[in-house]
Every structure is written in C-alpha cells, then in structure tokens.
Design a protein that fits this description.
51% of the residues lie in helices and 13% in strands. The protein has 411 residues and is α+β, with helices and mostly antiparallel strands. The protein has a domain of 126 residues. The strands form 2 sheets. It has a 5-stranded antiparallel β-sheet with strand order 1-2-3-5-4. It has a 3-stranded antiparallel β-sheet with strand order 6-7-8. A hairpin with a 2-residue loop joins β1 and β2. The chain is globular and about 75 Å long.
C-alpha cells in the first residue's frame, strides 16, 4: 500500500487502542499517552518501508525490486524492528519515557500499538498484486493477495472521517474533511472513480462520521465501524477477485485450449469490486512458448455490467472480447528456451527472476521487464537491460522465483 494509507490506518488504530484503555491518573499523562500511541502505531505502520534505503545495495533495477518489500517485510525481522522503534521513542521522547516508567497501562498500549502497526503493514501490503514473502528465511515463497488497489480511497474516507472529528482544533477538523473531499474529487477527475463509487464513499464517510459523533468525546463507535467496513471491503474484494479469476481462466481456455494457464494477476480498480484489470501467464510447452495477455474483466451481473467498469478503462482500439465478461487489450509471446537459457546463463537475469511474476522478454531490445507494470505512467520501473556475460550482483536475497512453473520444463 501507499504510505498515506499506511499512516491513516496507523493513526486510526492508535486512536482506537488509546480509547480502549483505562484513563491515566491525570490529564497531562492522558494527553501524552494519546500522542504516544498515535505516533507509535503510525510509525510502525510505515517502518518496514525504510528498506528503501537498502535499494542502493544492488544495481538498478535489482536494488528496488529485491530490497523493497524485502527483509524488513518478514515476520522474523518484525520483532527487532519493533524493539528498535520502541527504543527510539524511549530515548527521544522524555515525557513519554516518564509516562512509560510510571504507567503499566501505557506500556501495554505502546506494545499493542507497535505490534498492530507492523502486522497491519504486512497484511495491507499482501492485499495487492505486488506481493510479499513474509516467512523468509524459512520459505522464500511470494504471496499475492490480488484484492486491493495499492492506493485505495475507501480506507482514507472510512478511517479519516472519524479521525478528523476527534481532532481537538476546529481548523484541523475542517482541513481533514477538505483533504478527504479533495482526494475524492481528484480520483474522480482522473477517471479512477466512477459516479457510483464516489456516492458509496460519501455514504461511508457520513455513516462513520455520524457514528463517531454520536459516540461522544471518548467514544469509539465511528472508528470501530470504519475498521469493520475496511475488513468487509477487503473480504468482498477477495471474493470478487476469485470470481473474476475463474471467469478469466475459463475464457482463456476457450480461446486456446492447448495452453496451460499458470497465473492470472488480478489488479483492482479503486473502490470498484465489479471491475478488474488482469495479466495472464500461459505456457505452451509443446510449442516452446509462453504468452502474456492484458485486459479487463467484469464480475457484475449482465444487467449491471455496463456500469461496472469506467469507460476510460475498458475502451481500447485493440480490444477483443474473449467472453461476455472478459476483454483482452494486448498479448505478447516469448520463447521458453530463451527465458530458461538466460535464467541459467546470466546472473542478473537470474536475480531479476526472483521478483518477476509476469516476465516480458523482448529480445529485439535486449530487455526483460514485468508485464504487470507495462502501463506505469513513468515507464516500466522493472526493466532490466540484458548484458551478456554481466558481472554477478553480490548479496542477492534468496526470494523464491514467482515463475518457477515457467522456468522449469513441465512433463
């Protein structure tokens, strides 16, 4: 997820933890604990992304691909990171240190905020199609949730509205509301959000805000409702992703029954569980080739299908309908023999393949890139320029190969 989302969720959970604990002995201690739990949970929700400082350990693009969402995004290293964050708060925040020395409740609150923040970071990163490998070094396997768009405004609205209401200063409250509304309008103006999605998000904002308002100065009903809506949204997205994947696989086999579908990468659109972007990976071992497709799938009922995908996302001059629910925009093919030879004979390619889920090999340009990011506005940040007999990069992490099923002959 993006760091704005991590921060908003961290602040919301920190606020909820604070409001769930007994009050401190005096108002000064209560205010210090309030700030401490909000700050600690928000920092913990972002702390693993400090691995961006490690990206220079390998040449581009390998440094970013293999070190971002790398070691700091593993369960094993969550504990030392949590202890480091707690130590920094202790050393750098004298009033918080005094409170923690005097209050067992504050110590439990800090532990809960930091632990929850780290867990939320890994779980939220898991929900999108980029993936995580949380059980390294016991297992280098990647896990891809394929459920939630990497920038999801529902979390901003659901959690941000009650958080704006609990701010002490009126100016800050109105600034928070204005920021949330401006974000929705920006998404809508760019075509990322359709009218029904904007209306649903405004209703969610009103519901969470009203619940928090009725709960009173020390209440938590709005925050609980926001977290419940967020969990429910993820569950709906997960079910819709699985349904969409089944529809796509069926359409792919109908289009070419001789290929073997290895993977379907599902990417959600913001606050739109009925419409999905997909990348498919298919292997044709007998022909010595593999195929990548890009397109859009709708999981809406027939009567609702015209409204499920924004027109700007599904209209393409090269669109081809594979089924009533599945549209293909582009397709490309590669050589299994060339990909496997590069994997075995080029150390940089071998390292890159520890990240690439949809390897797009363009031998005319001498490039290898991940088809998932072919349409990134600033260009495909995964592109590796293949250099024959290139020096082997040192310190390559031992992540598993996402496409091990493509790299080994299937019998």
């Amino acid at each position: 997820m993006d760091n704005i989302t991590h921060s908003i969720i961290g602040f919301g959970v920190g606020e909820l933890v604070h409001r769930s604990l007994p009050r401190e002995a005096d108002e000064t201690s209560q205010r210090v604990r309030h700030r401490l739990l909000l700050v600690s949970c928000a920092l913990a929700s972002n702390f693993p992304d400090l691995d961006l400082f490690l990206t220079r350990l390998l040449p581009d693009p390998l440094g970013y691909l293999l070190h971002h969402r790398g070691h700091t995004h593993t369960a094993l290293l969550a504990l030392p990171q949590a202890l480091l964050l707690a130590a920094l708060l202790w050393l750098c925040w004298p009033s918080a240190r005094a409170l923690l020395q005097a209050s067992r409740t504050a110590r439990w609150g800090l532990a809960a905020s930091i632990a929850t923040g780290f867990a939320l970071h890994l779980l939220m990163d898991y929900t999108n199609s980029y993936g995580v490998h949380p059980w390294y070094p016991f297992s280098g396997r990647w896990f891809f949730g394929d459920m939630v768009f990497i920038v999801e405004p529902l979390f901003w609205v659901a959690v941000g509205t009650p958080m704006a209401l609990v701010m002490r200063w009126r100016f800050a409250r109105w600034l928070g509301f204005a920021g949330l509304f401006a974000a929705l309008m920006f998404f809508a103006s760019k075509g990322y959000l359709g009218g029904p999605s904007v209306a649903a998000l405004l209703l969610i904002a009103l519901a969470c805000g009203a619940a928090q308002w009725r709960a009173g100065a020390d209440g938590r009903a709005g925050l609980l409702l926001a977290l419940g809506i967020s969990v429910g949204f993820i569950a709906v997205q997960g079910a819709a992703s699985q349904l969409g994947r089944r529809l796509i696989v069926a359409a792919l086999y109908q289009a070419d029954s001789s290929s073997r579908v290895l993977d379907v990468v599902m990417t959600a659109y913001p606050s739109q569980p009925l419409c999905w972007s997909y990348i498919s990976v298919e292997s044709h071992e007998a022909a010595g080739s593999y195929r990548l497709r890009r397109g859009v799938a709708s999981v809406a009922p027939t009567w609702l299908a015209p409204l499920s995908c924004p027109a700007g996302l599904v209209e393409s001059p090269s669109a081809r309908a594979l089924s009533p629910s599945v549209v293909q925009f582009e397709t490309t093919e590669g050589s299994l023999a060339q990909l496997r030879a590069l994997k075995n004979g080029n150390c940089q390619v071998d390292a890159w393949l520890r990240f690439g889920r949809a390897p797009w090999l363009d031998m005319t340009k001498g490039e290898l890139s991940d088809y998932r990011f072919a349409l990134t506005p600033r260009g495909n940040f995964t592109t590796l320029h293949i250099v024959p007999a290139a020096a082997c990069p040192q310190g390559v992490p031992g992540w598993g190969y996402p496409r091990h099923d493509l790299l080994s002959p299937q019998h």
